[in-house]
Write a structure and sequence with these properties.
- This protein has a two-stranded antiparallel ribbon with strand order 1-2.
- It has two helices and two strands.
- A hairpin with a 2-residue loop joins strand 1 and strand 2.
- With 78 residues, it is an alpha+beta fold.
- It has one domain.
Length: 78
């Protein structure tokens, strides 16, 4: 199970922004602490994930010449 919850550390204690699932009652859980980043949107935001994906795609993309034509036959001839 993976769940991302934001919390505030006050006097050495974590105060969660939402309640944990009742399925976790009595279980030992592992917690990973991530410091705030330059991004202001929550980590689990769907819009944030899409923006990060598009930024990565744009980083590796390039312009094709206007006269470029995809030729499947040429690829398989190699």
């Amino acid at each position: 199970m993976l769940q991302i919850i934001q919390a505030i550390c006050t006097n050495g204690e974590l105060i969660l922004n939402e309640k944990l699932s009742s399925e976790l009652e009595g279980k030992t859980i592992q917690i990973m602490i991530l410091e705030p980043s330059e991004f202001t949107q929550p980590i689990d935001s769907q819009e944030w994930k899409i923006q990060q994906f598009l930024a990565r795609v744009n980083h590796y993309s390039f312009q094709l010449p206007p006269d470029y034509k995809f030729n499947r036959e040429e690829i398989y001839d190699r």
